[in-house]
Amino acid sequence: MPKKIVITGNHAAAYACKSVGVEVVAAYPITPQSPVVEKISEFVEAGEMKKFNTQFVCVESEQSAISGVIAASATGCRVFTASSANGLAYMFELLCWAAGSRLPVVMCIAMRGLGAPWTVWTDHQDAFSVRDVGFMQQFVESNQEIYDTVLMSYRIAEDPRVYLPSFVSYDGYILSHTMMPVQIEDDDKVAEFLPALKPHTDLTNMGTRPGLNPVTPPDLTIRPEGNTPGYYEFRYSMQKAHENAFEVIEEAAKDFARIFGRSYGNGIYKAYKADDAEILIFAVASVASESRGVVDRLREEGLKIGLISLKLFRPFPVKHLREAFSQANLVVVFDRDIGYGHEGILAYELKAALYPAEHRPIIRGFIVGLGGRDITPEDLIGGVKKAISEKDDRNVQMATHTDFIGLKLEQLGFTKGGD
Amino acid sequence: MIEIIIYGRGGMGAVTAGKILAEAAILSNNYPEVSAFPSFGTERRGAPVMAFCRISDEPIWTRAQIQQADYVIVLDETVFGNHVIDRIKTGGALILNTWKCPEDVRNMYDFGDRKITIVTADLTQIAFDLKLLNRENQPIVNTSVLGVIAKSSIKITLDDAKNAIENKFGKSTKTDLNVKAANMAAEQALVEEVK
Amino acid sequence: MVIKVKDLPEEEYILPGTRMCSGCGLQIAYRWALKALGPNTIVCNPASCSTVTGGVGGYTPIKVPVMYDCFETVAAHASGVSAALTAKGKDKETVVVAWAGDGGTYDIGIQGLSGAAERRSNFIYVCYNNQAYMNTGIQRSSATPFGAKTTTTPIIGKAQVNKNMFKIMRAHGLSYIATCASGYPQDLFEKFQKAREFNGKGVRFIEILSSCPPGWGHKVNESVEVTKKAVESGYWPLMEVIEGKLVISNPSKKYLDKSKRKDVRDYLKMQSRFKHFTEDDYKVWEQYIDDLWQELKWELEKQSDL
Amino acid sequence: MLSSRQTAAIGEAGKTGTWRTMKPIMHDEKCIMVKTGKLSCLLCWMFCPEISVNRTIPPTFDYDYCKGCGVCANECPAQAIEMIPEKENPSCESDEGGN
C-alpha cells in the first residue's frame, strides 16, 4: 500500500532514493542538504535498502562525493548525491565530468545562497550557477514534487535517447526543512514506471574491456583502425541529447500521471490560471508556489492573470515557452537569483527565447528574496502592479537597471547606491 | 487554511510540536494538506525559537513565514510578551503554557481591545506530576499541548493527537505518558470566554 | 624469495606502440603492475602522464578497463568503483587500482586519498613518483627532492626537502604499504601480487620511484640504471609495511649497513636536474639518507624487541 | 556517439618505431640464453618499456614499435645488444603515426 507521511523535503528526496533502489550514494553534508545524507545513511544502516545492497560512501568532501558517484555510475550502478551552495560550487569540475561522460547521475540541490557573505538560507543562485555544465535541471514547488521528480529524473536520465545527469532543485529550508504530506509509492509501481538501469558503460564488463577515456584530439583523425572521435563532436552529441530530452520528459510525465495519478503540467512547465491570462507571472520553485496565491488574489481584483511555473530549466524549453506566452501582453518574471552585471537569469533567458517569436509580450523582471529574505504575497503583488503601471513606459522598458523587491537599504545602513 | 505559530526555547521541541500537530491534522481527515517548518535559523539550546504550521483542506502554496497566525502557541511563558500578541490575528487564539488563568494573562499584558481568545494550561505542572521529563530533567510540554489544541476549534480530536504521538515516538510507556499528559491538558485547559 | 624472470607471466596488458616517452620508467612500472594484478582489474586514472599515455581518442594500449577522472579525485573515484563492485557483489574477484602521479598524490589529491584511506575504501592506490609535474612540463611538486631543478625551480633548484608520503600513509594505519622502483620489476611484481591478496582490507598504498628521462635529465638508456642507483645509494629504500610491521625488501636489506651503500653522487650525477650541485648540496643528500636509515634501523630494533 | 569509449589496440600512437634514432641489434653469439639454450636471462624482455622485445631464444625486436631507448642494451649483462644508428640501417617504413 502506498503510504502518505508527513516529511521534510530532504527526507522526501531520501525516500525517493529508496523507492528507485539507488545502489551507490556518496554525499557530504552541508546546510541545508545534510538531512538527505543522514536519512539515507539511516536507511542503509537499518538494512532498509538491503534489497539493492546499497553502499553509502561517507566521503570527506563534495568533490569526492560527486567523483565517487560518477565512478559508481560508470561501473553500472544507479547512483545519487546531493549538495547545496558552496558544496555544489566545490563540485563544479566533476559536474562537467559527469555530463561529459554521459552518466545518468541524479543529484538534488537544496538551494542556498552562495557565500560570501555567508548565508545558509535559500535563493536559487547556486542551482543557476551550474546551468551550463551539461546537467538537465528541474525545479520543484513541493515535497511531493521532490519525491516524484527524483523518480522521473532517473527515468529521463537513464533513457538511451538522453543519458545525461540531472539536477532536482528545491529551496533550502522552505522545502528542505518543511514537513508536508508526501505519498510514498509501492516498489512494484515504481518498477512499472522506472525500468531497470541499462548502463551504457560498465567497467566490470571485462569481456569487452571498455575504458572511458576523455582525452580526445581536437580534430577527427583518420587512423588505420578507423575514425577517432573528437571533442567537438561529443559536444554536439550532448546538445542533441538535451534536445531529445523534451520528448522523453513529456513521455515520462504522461506515464507518471497514468501510473501514480499525479502530474506537474506537461513535465516542462506548470500553468496556473493561464488560459485566458493577459498577464503571466514567470518563476520557479518557491517563488512560483508563492505566486499561486498572488494570482488568486489578483484575480479577485479582476485582473486576468496567471502563472507559468517553470519545471524544466535545462534543456531550456524555448518552443514550449513561446506557446505558453503566445497570448500574454505582459510577463512579470521573479528571479530569486541574479546574473550579476545583467539581470535575473530567468528574465534574460525568457527574453532570448521569445525574441524570435511572432508575438512578443513585454517582459519585466524583478529580483526577489536573495539569501532567504522572506517573499510575501505583498512583495509579488507590488511587483506585478508596478509592472502593469509602467507597462507602456518606453523609458522603463529601455532602462538597463535591475529592480529589487524587498530591500531594506536604509534600515541596514546602505545608501541607494549600495554603499 | 489555519495558520499556527509555536513559540518555545531551543531544545523544548517546538519544531516537533509543529510536526506532530501536522500529523494529527492529516490523521483527522479534516486537513489533508499541511506544512510545518521551523523559523529558519541556527537553533541554539535555550534561545527563543519559533515553529510554523499550516493546515488546510486545500493545497497550500504559500511558502512565506507566518506573520500573523490564527493560533499562537507559547510553550514557555518566559518568551511571551507583546511582540507575541502582535502575531495573533484578530479573532484568533493564544494558547499559553502557564499556571495563570486567562483573565490574569489578559490583565498582565497589553491586548488592547483586540478580539483574541486566551487559553491557558499548566503543561509544565502536568509534566512534573507525571514525571514526563527529558534527559535533562526538563518537563516535556510539546506533546501535551496537542490536548489543548484538541479542545480548541481546530478539528483535531484527542484520538488524532494520540495517534500522531504514537506515530512519532512508537508505542512505549513513555509514549503512553505523553498521551496521558495530552488528555490531562485537555481536561485542565482554561478557555476564556470572549465577550 | 625473489621470483625468477623466466617465471614471470607472458600475458601483457599494455600493447606496444604507446604514446609514452622513449625509455619511460612509468611504462615499465605500469606494465609489470598490470601483469601482477591480472585481467580482473579496473584502473582509475587522474590527470597525469598516464592519462595521455592511456591513449587519445577511441583507442588505448591498455587492455584492462580504465576510467579517467579529474586530477584531485582519483581516490574518491576508486572508492566509487569499489562501492559499485560491492553493490554488485563483484568485489571479491575484481581489484580496483588508483594509478596516480606524485602531483595527484602528494599535492592536489591528498585530501581524497586521506579520506579514502581513513574510511577503508577497498582499492590499491599507486603513486608512481617521478618527482615533479612531468605531464605539464616538469614543474616542482611536493615530491620533488631537495635541490632538483624543475621549470618552477629553474635556477637554484628546489629549496625544500620533499614530503614523506610513506609516513603520511603509515599514519593512516593501512593494511599494506610498499615502496617500489621502476628498475626492479620483479620486486614490484611481487608487491602488487601481495597488495592484491589484501583485497577487502581497505586502501593498500604502493609508491613507485619512476624514472623520467626528460624530467630528470638522464640518458634514455639509463632509465633502469638510474632507479637502481637510487636504491643502491640507500636514497630509495624498497620496503613494506604489512599490517603495521616494517619489512625491508630484499634488494635494499644490505643497505642497513652504511658501508654497503653506494655513493649517492653516482645517482645524482647521472641527472642534469642535479648538475648544479655543490659539495654542500651533496652533503644535504648524504645526511638525508643517513637519517632515513637511522630511523628505519631504530624501528626494526624496536620491532625485534617486542 | 555517447562518450569517449576506448578499445584496446596495438600501435595506439602509430608505429612508434619511427621515433627511433638508434636501433638495437642482437649479437646472438653473446646472448646468455643462446649460450645456455634455455629461457633464463630475459632481462631485455623484462626491462623493455615498450613491450617490443619478444620472449624468444634469442630475443628478437619488434621494430615497428621499438622506440630505440636502449634500456635493453644498457641492462644486458652480456653486452649482446648493440645500438646502431637507424638512419644507416632502416627497418621501419615511415608512418604518420598518431599526433
From TrEMBL, chain A:
Annotated protein name in UniProt? Pyruvate ferredoxin oxidoreductase
GO terms in the biological process aspect are: carboxylic acid metabolic process; response to oxidative stress; sulfur compound biosynthetic process
GO MF entry, a single one: 3-methyl-2-oxobutanoate dehydrogenase (ferredoxin) activity
What quaternary arrangement does the UniProt entry report? Heterotetramer of one alpha, one beta, one delta and one gamma chain.
Is Transcription set as a keyword in this record?
Answer: no
UniProt region (Disordered), positions on chain: 205-225
**SUPFAM superfamilies xrefs:** Thiamin diphosphate-binding fold (THDP-binding), TK C-terminal domain-like
Keywords in alphabetical order: Oxidoreductase, Pyruvate
Q: Which residues form the Pyruvate flavodoxin/ferredoxin oxidoreductase pyrimidine binding domain?
A: 16-253
The question of whether Oxidoreductase is a record keyword is answered with yes
InterPro entries, per the entry:
PFOR_II, Pyruvate:ferred/Flavod_OxRd, Pyrv_Fd/Flavodoxin_OxRdtase_N, THDP-binding, Transketo_C/PFOR_II
Pyruvate:ferredoxin oxidoreductase core domain: from which residue to which, for each copy?
277-380
**PANTHER family this protein is in?**
PYRUVATE-FLAVODOXIN OXIDOREDUCTASE-RELATED (PTHR32154:SF0)
Automatic annotation (TrEMBL), chain B:
> What keywords does the record list, in alphabetical order?
Oxidoreductase
State if Oxidoreductase is listed as a keyword.
yes
Spell out the reaction equation it catalyses. 2 oxidized [2Fe-2S]-[ferredoxin] + pyruvate + CoA = 2 reduced [2Fe-2S]-[ferredoxin] + acetyl-CoA + CO2 + H(+)
Q: What is the enzyme's main class?
A: oxidoreductase
Q: Which GO terms describe its molecular function?
A: pyruvate synthase activity
Q: Which positions carry the signal peptide feature in this UniProt record?
A: none
**Is Oxidoreductase among this UniProt entry's keywords?**
yes
A Pfam family found in this protein is POR
EC number, as in UniProt: 1.2.7.1
- UniProt cross-references to PANTHER family, sorted A to Z: PYRUVATE SYNTHASE SUBUNIT PORC (PTHR43366:SF1)
NCBIfam families from the xrefs?
Answer: PorC_KorC
What is the name of this protein?
Answer: pyruvate synthase
Automatic annotation (TrEMBL), chain C:
CDD domains listed in its UniProt record: TPP_PFOR_porB_like
Recorded GO terms, molecular function? pyruvate synthase activity; thiamine pyrophosphate binding
Q: Keyword annotations for this protein?
A: Oxidoreductase
Span of the signal peptide = none
Record-linked Gene3D superfamilies: 3.40.50.970
Q: Which residues form the Thiamine pyrophosphate enzyme TPP-binding domain?
A: 73-208
Per the record, the domain of life is Archaea
Q: Which InterPro entries match?
A: PorB-like, THDP-binding, TPP_enzyme_TPP-bd
Specify the protein name: Thiamine pyrophosphate-dependent enzyme
Taxonomic lineage per UniProt? Archaea, Promethearchaeati, Promethearchaeota, Promethearchaeia, Promethearchaeales
UniProtKB/TrEMBL annotation, chain D:
Has keyword Electron transport?
yes
Q: Which cofactor does it need?
A: [4Fe-4S] cluster
GO MF terms listed in the record are: 4 iron, 4 sulfur cluster binding; metal ion binding; oxidoreductase activity, acting on the aldehyde or oxo group of donors, iron-sulfur protein as acceptor
The record ties this protein, via Gene3D superfamilies, to: 3.30.70.20
What does the UniProt keyword field contain?
A: 4Fe-4S, Electron transport, Iron, Iron-sulfur, Metal-binding, Repeat, Transport
The yes or no answer to whether the keyword Magnesium is present is no
The protein's matches in Pfam families, at most eight in alphabetical order, are given as: Fer4
What name does UniProt use for this protein?
4Fe-4S binding protein
* High-level lineage: Archaea, Promethearchaeati, Promethearchaeota, Promethearchaeia, Promethearchaeales
